Amino acid sequence: MSKLYVIDGLDGSGKGTITTRLQQHYHAAGITARRISFPNYESESGALVRMYLDGRLGGTPEDTGPHAASTMFAIYRYISDRCDWGDFYRDGDGIIIADRYTTANAVHQMTKIPQQQWDSFLDWLFDFEYNKLGLPAPDTVIYLDMLPHLSQRTITARSIAQNRTVDIHETDTSHLEKARRAGLYAAERFGWNVVASHQNGDLRSLDEVFDEILEKLD
User: Fold this and answer.
1) What is the pTM of this model?
2) Which of 20, 137, 156, 162 is found 20 to 30 A from 91 (Cα to Cα)?
3) Per-residue pLDDT reduced to its tens digit, 26-64
4) CATH of 3-217, one of 3.90.79.10, 3.40.1350.10, 3.40.50.300, 2.60.40.3410
């Protein structure tokens, strides 16, 4: 059975670059590695997720409750497992590197409910995905801690450079602030490895971030 490593964090924290570099690193070391990313906007099974993030179910994240939104992402992940990477995970002996996973539901959907309900929501979420749907639980989770104003700055620059529309999570500054608090809470409860994407109020070197992550994984 392959290992499943998850890299999560706010938008702009470096997840895409880090997961790509990790895959390249393991390939260079002679280890078979696959990179998966959630959500994949081009995937047929991601239609409901796209509708949610595009604002077609409501203009703000709070317009769709945490259980409904989490279910959309979970079903998309289930189909992805069955049709794409699941056989490699169950029958292989390599590494799967995930850019977001069930952990992203924890980070973003907890923002919609009072903190006193966070534990019960997290219990429901991980039971739903890992037990009810049978999705594999990660072997290791790295949470990239990102300051919300840096996340917003990176999102804006990326949307201009790529000429793409930002989603309802990315446009909501208050959501990013609440998501950071939720992410750090979940990291402490479940023992995720926290790695800072910021230093002295600005973005930290991705080389430094990558080296720290690699040290934790190795």
Assistant:
1) 0.92
2) 20
3) 999 999 999 999 977 677 777 888 898 889 999 888 899
4) 3.40.50.300
